[in-house]
Hints:
Elements: E1 21-26, E2 38-40, E3 52-56, E4 67-77, H1 78-85, H2 91-97, E5 101-104
Parallel strand pairs: 4-5
Antiparallel strand pairs: 1-4, 2-3, 3-4
Amino acid sequence: MKYTVTEYGGTVEWLASNDFQAIPAHVTGTTEVKSGTPITAAGAVATDATNAVGIVLHDTDPNVNPNVAILVQGIIDLAKMNAHSGLSLTAAAIKAVLPGIVCRTNIGVNA
């Protein structure tokens, strides 16, 4: 899979552990997708995590390269992820559709 990382204002690290599993995916649409955004199997943004199959690991512009890696198992800093993605997901919403992801809410945002 062709994979290119283009940074938009710097990298935000919302993973809370070095141990994680990610799989390749394809993002649809024409607008930039921020890391920390859940996507569906069809590659569409899932702003409320419903039908999500993973969480985008890096900011991506589908006009340049729609291939991404999505997190399917690991530990995340939920506050930092929400701050970067612009979403307001809850740990319960993520756990309901992505049981392999553990949400830490007690480590704070170090922006």
